[in-house]
Write a structure and sequence with these properties.
This protein is α/β, with parallel strands linked by helices and 318 residues long. It has 14 helices and eleven strands. The strands form four sheets. It has a five-stranded parallel sheet with strand order 2-5-8-1-9. Strands 3-4 form a two-stranded antiparallel ribbon. Strands 6-7 form a two-stranded antiparallel sheet. The two termini are 34 Å apart. This is MoxR family ATPase. InterPro entries: ATPase_AAA-3, CbbQ/NirQ/NorQ/GpvN, ChlI/MoxR_AAA_lid, P-loop_NTPase. Belongs to the MoxR family. One of its GO terms (molecular function) is ATP hydrolysis activity.
């Protein structure tokens, strides 16, 4: 029942957000693995639409926050407001107190706002004044970055990048999908809506998370994950080229993320066990933003994707 519901949800979202099946899959994996997702791509690729469509299907409120250089932490978290009728201060929650939050162009906000976001993402709580307030039990952040416009931005530090479960790169759809988008948009403008969105309760999501955690993972797969992680920390033991490319390896948080995401990927694929293919499918979005490349690699135009591809050729799954 759970799996069928999630697969129906995935099919529905793919019909609402055409040509971005990878984004939809990773969004659901982040939901199942209880993590946050960073999406990098040009504007206009239905990133907001994807999260709004997901919010329609679950018991949770959606809020979009446009990050700007003049944004203050209180604009995000909320603030204490004085009530003259009672003579006391009461806390007014900010937009972060929603189940699904789209942090649009997160790298346009200054460091103090990013720090408030970091606490919310890592601890599922925020601090305002002297008090700490818990966030909703179901809490998912999808942050976006525009890779083209980098003027006037505040690049996310490694500590905050590490808080994201996944980093996804999205591109333009092909001609076939572009035509489907055109027709879908025209139909919506005419008031046509033929598909009723499936609805998931929060208890369905929490139950599915427990199922995903209980999926069988053989010790050989666990060792495969460990070898991949260790190769990023001790690249010279594997290959001199890899050692020239990697400045710093990934943290244990990456190990946990790869384990959880591989399980979620296997479950969404209809299997009750994790295979090496699940690990290989998820290693790119899990490690892409966590690998720190050397200046030499950056000067040569080497990308994290190329490093990960080389890593997979060096570390066998057997």
């Amino acid at each position: 029942m759970q799996l069928t519901t999630f697969q129906t949800l995935q099919d529905y979202l793919n019909q609402q957000v055409i040509g971005q099946s990878s984004l939809i899959q990773q969004l659901l994996i982040a939901l199942l693995a209880d993590g946050h997702i960073l999406v990098e791509g040009p504007p206009g690729l239905a990133k907001t639409r994807a999260v709004k469509s997901l919010a329609e299907c679950i018991e949770g409120e959606f809020h979009r926050i446009q990050f700007t250089p003049d944004l203050l932490p209180a604009d995000l978290t909320g603030t204490d407001i004085f009530r003259p009728e009672t003579g006391e201060f009461t806390f007014q929650p900010g937009p972060i107190f929603h189940s699904l939050v789209l942090a649009d162009e997160i790298n346009r906000a200054p460091a103090k706002v990013q720090a408030a976001m970091l606490e919310a993402m890592a601890e599922k709580q925020i601090t305002a004044g002297r008090k700490t307030y818990p966030l909703p039990p179901l809490f998912l952040v999808m942050a976006t970055q525009n890779p083209i416009e980098q003027e006037g931005t505040y690049p996310l530090p490694e500590a905050q990048l590490d808080r994201f479960l996944l980093h996804l790169e999205v591109g333009y759809p092909d001609a076939e999908h572009e035509l489907a988008i055109l027709r879908l948009n025209r139909g919506e403008a005419l008031g046509q809506r033929s598909i009723t969105p499936p609805v998931l309760s929060q208890s369905d999501i929490f139950s599915a998370r427990q199922t995903v955690l209980n999926i069988h993972m053989a010790e050989a797969i666990e060792q495969y994950i460990i070898r991949l992680i260790m190769a990023t920390r001790h690249p010279s033991e594997y290959d001199p080229t890899l050692a020239q490319w990697i400045e710093m390896g990934v943290s244990p948080r990456a190990t946990i993320a790869l384990d959880r995401c591989a399980r979620a990927h296997a479950w969404l694929s209809g299997r009750d066990f994790v295979s090496p293919e699940d690990v290989q499918a998820m290693i790119y979005p899990v490690l892409r933003h966590r690998l720190l490349l050397t200046y030499q690699a950056q000067a040569e135009g080497i990308t994290p994707n190329q490093v990960i591809a080389h890593l997979l050729t060096l570390v066998g799954s057997a």
